[in-house]
Each structure stands twice: as structure tokens, then as C-alpha cells.
Amino acid sequence: MNESVQAVNEKGLNGTLTVPGDKSISHRAVMFGAIAEGITTVEGFLPGEDCLSTISCFQKLGVTIEQNGDKVEIEGKGYEGLQEPQDILDVGNSGTTTRLMMGILATLPFHSVIIGDESIAKRPMSRVTNPLREMGAQIDGRDNGNLTPISIRGGHTKGISYQSKVASAQVKSCILLAGLQSEGETSVTEPHRSRDHTERMLSAFGVPVKRDGLTTSVRGGQTLTAQHIVVPGDISSAAFLLVAGSIVPNSKITLENVGVNPTRTGIIDVLQQMGARLEISNQRIVNDEPVADLTISTSELQGIEISGDIIPRLIDEIPVIALLATQATGTTVIKDAEELKVKETNRIDTVVSQLKKLGASIEATDDGMIIHGKTELHGANVSSFGDHRIGMAMAIAGCITKGQVTIENSDAIAVSYPNFFEHLRTLQQ
Ligand code: SPQ
Fold it and tell me: Does the global pTM surpass 0.85?
């Protein structure tokens, strides 16, 4: 499907919205509910394609799950409730489903096979295959278990002390999930702190989680107890509208109920450092996760350097931050972001090539990109390349270009923000 976006009129983007539920938290609520004892209920669930893939995989593993819009009910019967699937587990486009589910399957005494779409088939899985093999799981797949289809024969696993080379919540969560059913203690040390939704939610399900600096540990033989989970709005989805609100003239947008977990708020820091007019209000804690309302208004922006510890806190926002930087005066340098190369697309290549088509002054580097602003962008035909975040970044660019932006393969956006275009239209009235 193609979608075209025209520049917003002189009235700007205005209004109040609630963005859909957090994708990372929605996946975890379903998975943890599936291995817990009792009925877990979820509200604010993201009914995007990725999280629906998680539901369908766990249904194939024998768990009864009812989903109705943003409400989900999971009938957990502990680990014994999960059975050998008769069918292949299809994760669609979702890296989170693949890697976290592998951690659970590695400890279960049966065989399962995971496949996904074209993009998943290119994403590296050895970052989880290797530690899971070290723990005792039998895993195979193309490229010596690095690429899907992946086959897993789980069983008796032993705890490990793992030093991860990458700051990845998926690697950390996969190993910790395997650790819950392994002999002894399992710990993961990461080079920079990645998002900590797994740690927070495991504690809520009754599992003691030890945190010591960049090391997180759990003990084996754990039982999870069913919970009621309220999912906050996804800051990674909010990021597109925050950027829109700051670069489209005469705009003021309020986003209510956005998750502001400090491991995810790099986008807020960047907007503030660039000089954006951003207000944070109504700060509260819901289900052990910080939540707030965010109001953004059209702003004069300055280029900055973005590197180091902040990168894992905004990794998924870099496509739209690159667009933001085209509207900032001066140079923005993004460094230490090699992980962008192994996302749904190589996001260094796709961001740079598509923004160039719109007239941006942007160049790729080995570990990020350099953007010179402020540039007047023009319309063009671009592609999402099947990557939801590239599709949305291009749509927001279309709000300020001279001439329309047509996005090929815009349906990819449904992976994380099914009502994205409807929300964008609402703000234009
Ligand atoms: O699930 P998937 O496909 O990996 O999704 C992405 C995204 O842009 O939505 C990454 F492509 O988000 C990841 C994120 O980059 C979701 C995630 C999580 O829920 O644990 C963690 C991050 O990935 P990683 O590899 O750094 O652990």
C-alpha cells in the first residue's frame, strides 16, 4: 500500500491524543502471563501486528489467550501449560517476539521451530543462540543458528554469568527468562543500560530480580503469579508526534499517558537539548512504570551531538530524530549507534537514503550519521522498506515538505502504530 502526505496548512497540528500502548511492555505482559500461574489481565495492550504475533505464538504453544482491542486475558498454567507446538511459530516482523520467546523455549522439554518475515530472516540471532547454547539448549538454524528458521530443543539448562557485548534489552531479557527455569543463578552484564521493562515486570509477577550496576540476576526455579497489567502509551510512538509538533509551524500537541521510563526517555533529553518547547506534566507511577503527559509546541532548534550512554535510551527514535535534525540550525552528529544496522532495516542506510530524496543534507557514518540543518525539504516518492519506523518518519517529513511525500509500503506502520494516519489527520482539524 502507498500513502501520500501533504504539508500541514498554516493552522499547524493541534490537539490532545493518547498514543497506543507500549510495544515492549505489551509483548512482555503476554509472555509473562503465559508462563505465570492464574489469569493475567492486560489493559492498554497494543493491538499492533508485532504484539499480535506474540499472542498467536503462545496460543500455538497451548496457552488460552483472549484479545479484544486493547484488552487481553491470558490463562496461565505455569510452564507446564506450554506444550510442543504442532505448527511453526511465526513471529512476523517482531525481533522482540523471536528473542524473548527463545529464552522461554530454551528451557522447555520439547521441539519448536521459529520463522518470521523477510526482515526477520536477516536479523542476527547468534546474540541469543550462543548464550542459550552455553546454558544447555540445543538450537539450530541457517548460518549455524544465527538466522531463522531457528529450531529449538529445550530442556535442562544451567545458569550462566553472561557479559553481553551489546546493550540490548532483547539479549538481556532472553537470558533472564531462560535463567528463571535454569539451575542456579543467571546474570547478565551489559555495556550500557538497556530498557528495563523485563526487570520491572518480573518483580511485579513476584520474581526477585537483583540489580547491581549494569548486572542483573535471577535465580532458577521461579514461579510467576498472574497480575493485572496496565500498559502506558508508547514513547517510541509518541516520538513521531513530538517531532511533528516541534517542526510544523503553529503547532501545540498534548500526548496523554505516555510511558516515561528513564531507560526510554532519550528522545525527551534530545528535544530539550535542541531547545524544543516541551512540558512534562501529571507525572505518576502506573504498575511500577513512570507515566506522564507531554506537551510540545513549535520550536527553534539547534543541532547537537548524540552519543554514548544515551543511544540505547533512544535507539528506535533515531529515524525521526534525524528528521528533527534537518530542521535544527547547525550540525547534529549521531555516533555509537551501530545497532541501527540490525533493526527491521539497516536504519543508517534507509534513513540517510530516504531523507536525501527529500533534499536533506545528511551523510552516513560507520556508527551513525551527520545531519546539517536547517534545510527546506521537498516532496518525493520514498519507501518504508517494510520498516514501520522509517514509514512514520517519512510521513512526518511529509507534514513540512514543499510538495507531497508518497510512502511505498506504508502498511508496515501497523506493526507498532495501527491508527497512526488517523491520529495525524485528527491533529490537522
Ligand atoms: O521487536 P523489534 O522488531 O526488535 O523492534 C524494535 C522497534 O523498532 O520497534 C527494533 F527494531 O524495538 C526493539 C528495540 O530496538 C524492542 C526492544 C524490546 O522490546 O526489548 C528492544 C530494542 O532492541 P534491542 O535489540 O536493543 O534489545
Answer: yes
